[in-house]
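Hey, I'm writing a tutorial for new members on how sequence and structure tokens pair up, and I'd like a real worked example in the thread rather than a made-up one. If someone can provide the structure for the chain below, I'll link this post from the tutorial.
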Amino acid sequence: MSYRLASHPSCYRCYLMIGNGVLTTTTIALCSLRSPDTPRALIMLVLLVGGLWRSMQFTSINTLAFADVPPARNAGRKVSGHTRTESR
């Protein structure tokens, strides 16, 4: 029974978001541990990876905002809903 709960897609997304939140927090903590002797390449790597993880976290949280919106109200929020093709 616990295997079925852990393998459910919504649980997988939940674990993914929790793990991503931990990784985002870790990169913020790593920024506070740098010193004047820290190589610039390492600082840039931590900032790049942290930015990628934060971007994924914000995207997943914003996706959850539209999870409960009915399809009838969600049609205009898609990119394809904003583009029209006109036939002549």
